[in-house]
Design goal:
Elements: E1 8-12, H1 19-27, E2 32-34, E3 37-39, E4 53-55, H2 58-67, E5 70-76, E6 80-85, H3 87-95, E7 98-102, H4 105-114, E8 119-124, H5 128-138, H6 143-156, E9 165-168, H7 172-187, H8 190-202
Parallel strand pairs: 1-7, 1-8, 2-7, 3-4, 8-9
Antiparallel strand pairs: 3-6, 5-6
Length: 206
């Protein structure tokens, strides 16, 4: 049985910080796959099941909780539930690929607790004014929803110390290089490659 374990990358940050775009940049690297979260919210017009989310009923979601199917889960804004199925870690292991989780701060803290070796990356906007501008420019939220997102962002920004890395997304090209560099450097950790390193050392009589 192989001792190989996937590198799990947790990417989170406030709504509007650009974390989804940076996740796509990570997925441009070889040997990476993204998890697909489950949610009880209704799909938007541009969303297809299984690509962005798996959309389930609240009853189905609670059944998954009871079965222990989730690596992490949380209720957002006191309404809809979101969760990352554990099966994605198994799939990454089988495919020998590294797994990228794009999840909110609450879920990230749960996932990091369950997977302490995971690498957590926090994506920050350059300022609160910039974040508000980005959210408004999307044109998909009501004024009430915008205020809720901004209030939540203020809470989430205090969690940055719980992460291993922080990337300020004020320049997409630079931020993209940074998240990719974090992945590549994390793959080279001695602890992740000790078995192979020991085999090489043996060839030197070590």
């Amino acid at each position: 049985m192989s001792l190989w374990e996937p590198l799990v990358l947790i990417v989170s940050g406030p709504s509007g910080s650009g974390k989804s775009t940076l996740v796509q940049k990570i997925l441009e690297l070889p040997r990476t796959i993204a998890s697909v979260s489950c949610t009880t919210r209704a799909p938007r017009k541009t969303e297809n099941k299984g690509k962005w989310y798996n959309f389930v009923t609240e009853e189905e979601f609670r059944q998954m909780i009871d079965r222990g199917d989730f690596l992490e889960y949380a209720q957002v804004f006191g309404k809809n539930w979101y969760g990352t199925p554990r099966k994605w870690v198994d799939q990454a292991r089988e495919q020998k690929k590294d797994l990228v989780l794009e999840i909110d701060v609450q879920g990230a803290l749960q996932a990091k607790k369950n997977l302490p070796d995971a690498v957590a990356i926090f994506v920050l906007p350059p300022s609160s004014a910039d974040l508000e501008c980005r959210i408004r420019e999307r044109g998909q939220d009501s004024e009430e929803e915008i205020r809720r997102r901004l209030d939540r962002a203020r809470e989430e920004m205090r969690s940055y110390r719980s992460y291993d890395f922080a990337v300020v997304n004020d320049d997409l090209e630079r931020a993209s290089r940074e998240v990719q560099s974090i992945v590549l450097a994390s793959r080279c950790r001695v602890a992740r490659n000790e078995q192979r390193i020991c085999e090489i050392v043996k060839t030197f009589g070590g």
